[in-house]
Design brief:
Strand order of the largest sheet of chain B: 2-3-4-5-1-8-10-9
Number of domains of chain B: 2
Number of domains of chain A: 3
Order of helices and strands of chain B: EHEHEEEHEEEHHEEHHHHHH
Radius of gyration of chain A: 22 Å
Number of helices of chain A: 8
Strand content of chain B: 15-25%
Oligomer: heterodimer
Helix content of chain B: 40-55%
Catalytic activity (chain B): L-arginyl-[protein] + ATP = N(omega)-phospho-L-arginyl-[protein] + ADP + H(+)
Bound molecules: zinc ion
GO molecular function (chain B): ATP binding; creatine kinase activity; protein arginine kinase activity
Number of strands of chain B: 10
EC number (chain B): 2.7.14.1
Distance between the termini of chain B: 16 Å
Protein name (chain B): Protein-arginine kinase
Family (chain B): Belongs to the ATP:guanido phosphotransferase family.
CATH superfamily of the largest domain in chain B: Glutamine synthetase/guanido kinase, catalytic domain
CATH class of the largest domain in chain B: Alpha Beta
């Protein structure tokens, strides 16, 4: 396959984005990919975020949102985030919240983290996630009529719930 | 030189290395893009201390280095050896890193995120890499408060890393798939299931030395174990395809393949001027020859190392001075002759 950008070199960098269910694929040669700058050390799609952000708005992005919305912790504006594809601090996630959920959905296909949780900071979070996991297992156990196992799981859930409240 | 390549890993006839990288940020300091000099110094000290003054056995392994105290040439040598990232070089005034003595672990400070830790191992060893990376993460987290959101997970500078903050990647050598022309089909299939492929050291046209890096694209909504499992499964399938292609080549074009391998070795052993591009191509052919059992007179580990040490900054480092391209091509030929 040849590079879609220059049409000369073989495409060695391939990626895909999904916008409103429409799949767009890009196949570039390393040179053209480099020029696009978003392929820095590993891969990333920073500069395509701008495109993504615009595509996933219901209508065109309101100019006043771009200019007026600003993170009050680090001073990052939504407009600058759109340009660079990078947040200025952890609070930016809160400041631009309403625009981010569809963005995450587009990049990752998901909205919620289910992986590792920090031990110290995430004490309660870990327990809550653990409870959620046990509840899922409980449902399966009940469905399979494994009542002994279900009772065990229910007790464990109660214990954990008490731990959070206590 | 290139310590992390020492020793053989599983599937090393095709997989050169496995890498796990985790992105983390401190809660109370702006991300590196918006950081002040003072805050950058504070994050540096805290991250450094979290490792060097922790009680973990790991910590005695690390050495701390500031980018601004390292020459530009040495910085590029580290990038070519995959020990630090190119992105870290963008902020030489605030960037620093901790490197383990065996060169398998790097903790970069003030890269795109406050913390970018990576574990780099030879062969296909993703689970082991994740295990080690997660342990280092635990050591850091004992003393640092991470930017973490209950719903979104680890908060990162770029939305493409949010969630696990994990990028797992595998570097594979796929000469037979390239030779038989099936590589694009394979790569396309890989990208369709949410993984990314890039050619390594690509300068324009092809992946140099037939090396490709395959990594996960999704970081949110899948657990680290799941991401690794998926990547590993795909890599195993690619390994299988590459082995079949090698077999096919041996069955149908044995003499041509032998000729290619021996000619490549001949040139490498006798050339007086060689570009990094040509060297990579020929080294790839020789590596394929070893992995296919055509030759056994050359040490494969040495070939793997040469694929890194023939890069421009490494050649200059060896000569201990800056060189013109022509001078580099001469030194490169010297190095290869010496090692083979
Ligand atoms: Zn191109
Ligand atoms: Zn902010």
């Amino acid at each position: 396959m040849l590079c879609e950008e220059c049409g000369k070199n073989p495409a060695t960098v391939h990626f895909k984005k999904v916008i409103n269910g429409n799949v767009t694929e890009m196949h570039l040669c390393e040179e053209c990919a480099k020029k696009k700058k978003e392929f820095d050390t590993s891969f990333s799609i920073h500069n395509f975020l701008t495109g993504l952000l615009d595509d996933i708005q219901e209508g065109p992005v309101k100019v006043d949102y771009i200019q007026a919305t600003k993170c009050d912790k680090c001073g990052m504006t939504y407009g600058k985030f759109r340009q660079t594809g990078r947040f200025g601090c952890n609070h930016c996630y809160e400041a631009f919240k309403e625009k981010l959920t569809p963005l995450f959905k587009n990049i990752h296909g998901h909205e919620e983290h289910i992986g590792k949780v920090p031990k110290k900071a995430g004490g309660v979070i870990r327990i809550r996630k653990e409870i959620q996991k046990l509840k899922n297992q409980l449902n399966i156990a009940v469905k399979n009529e494994q009542f002994e196992k279900a009772a065990e799981l229910r007790d464990r859930i109660k214990e954990l719930e008490a731990e959070i409240e206590g | 030189m290139v310590k992390w390549l020492e020793g053989k890993g599983p599937e090393s006839d095709i997989v050169v290395s496995s890498r796990i990288r985790l992105a983390r940020n401190l809660e109370d300091i702006n991300f590196p893009q918006m950081i002040t000099k003072e805050a950058a110094e504070s994050s540096t000290q805290r991250i450094k201390d979290a490792i060097l003054s922790s009680n973990s056995v790991l910590t005695r392994e690390f050495e701390f280095k500031r980018l601004r105290e390292i020459s530009e040439l040495d910085r590029n040598v580290l990038v070519e050896k995959h020990l630090i990232s190119h992105t870290l070089l963008e902020r030489p005034q605030i960037g620093s890193f901790l490197l383990s003595k065996d060169e398998k672990v790097t903790i970069m400070i003030n890269e795109e995120d406050h913390i970018r830790m990576q574990v780099l191992l030879p062969g296909l060893r993703l689970e082991e890499g994740w295990d080690l990376c997660s342990k280092i993460d635990d050591v850091l987290e004992e003393r640092l408060k991470y930017a973490f959101d209950e719903k979104l997970g680890y908060l990162t500078s770029c939305p493409t890393n949010v969630g696990t903050g994990m990028r797992a990647s595998v570097m594979v050598h796929l000469p037979a798939l390239v030779l038989t022309g099936t590589i694009n089909k394979v790569l396309q299939a890989v990208t369709q299931i949410g993984l990314t492929v890039r050619g390594l050291y690509g300068e324009g046209t092809n992946a140099m030395g037939n090396l490709f890096q395959i990594s996960n694209q999704i970081t949110l909504g899948e657990s680290e174990e799941k991401i690794i499992e998926k990547l590993k499964n795909v890599v195993l399938q690619i390994i299988n395809k590459e082995r079949k292609a090698r077999e096919k080549l041996l069955n149908s074009n044995k003499v041509q393949i032998e000729d290619k391998v021996y000619r490549s070795l001949g040139i490498l052993k006798s050339a007086r001027i060689i570009s990094s591009k040509e060297a990579m191509k020929l080294l790839s052919n020789v590596k394929m020859g070893i992995d296919m059992g055509i030759i056994d007179e050359v040490d494969k580990e040495e070939i793997n190392k040469l694929m890194i040490t023939v890069q421009p900054a490494n050649i200059q480092k060896r000569a201990m001075k800056e060189l013109t391209q022509f001078e580099r091509d001469i030194k490169r030929a010297e190095l290869i002759r010496e090692k083979l």
